[in-house]
Design goal:
The chain is built from seven helices and no strands. With 125 residues, it is mostly helical.
Length: 125
C-alpha cells in the first residue's frame, strides 16, 4: 500500500488541486488547472508542478487574507457600468436587467477569486 501511494501521490495532489480550483472558478485558480494540465502528461514535470502549485496556493491565500483587511474598500474602485442603449446591443431589456454588470457596482477582484467574506472563517474553508 505504501509503494502504491508513493507512486500515485502526485496524481492525487493534482486531482485534488484541480477539483478545489473548479469549485471556485477564478483567474487565479485557472492558473492551477493550467499548470496541472501541462504537467500531468509528463512525469518529469509533476514534481515541479507540485512545488509551483504550493507556492501559487500560498500566494492566493495571502492575497485573500490581505483583501479582508478593513483598509481595503471594494466600493472605492468598483465599476458601475451604465446600461447600453437598446440599439447598441443585441440583448433584450430583460437580459440587460438580469446581467451582473448592470445590477450594481462590479468588484473586479471577484474575477480573481478574491472577495470580502463575512464571516471570514466560512470564506477560508
Amino acid at each position: 500500500v505504501g509503494r502504491l501511494l508513493e507512486l500515485h501521490v502526485l496524481k492525487l495532489v493534482a486531482l485534488y488541486t484541480v477539483w478545489v480550483a473548479l469549485q471556485e472558478v477564478s483567474l487565479m485558480n485557472f492558473l492551477l488547472v493550467l499548470l496541472w494540465a501541462f504537467a500531468m502528461p509528463y512525469c518529469r514535470f509533476r514534481h515541479m508542478a507540485s512545488c509551483l502549485s504550493t507556492v501559487w496556493t500560498c500566494i492566493i491565500i495571502v492575497c485573500k487574507m490581505l483583501y479582508q483587511l478593513k483598509i481595503v474598500d471594494p466600493r472605492e474602485y468598483s465599476s458601475n457600468c451604465t446600461q447600453p442603449q437598446l440599439n447598441g446591443t443585441n440583448l433584450s431589456p430583460e437580459e440587460l436587467g438580469n446581467s451582473t454588470l448592470y445590477r450594481g457596482p462590479v468588484d473586479p477582484a471577484n474575477w480573481f477569486g478574491i472577495r470580502k467574506g463575512y464571516p471570514n472563517l466560512g470564506y477560508i474553508q
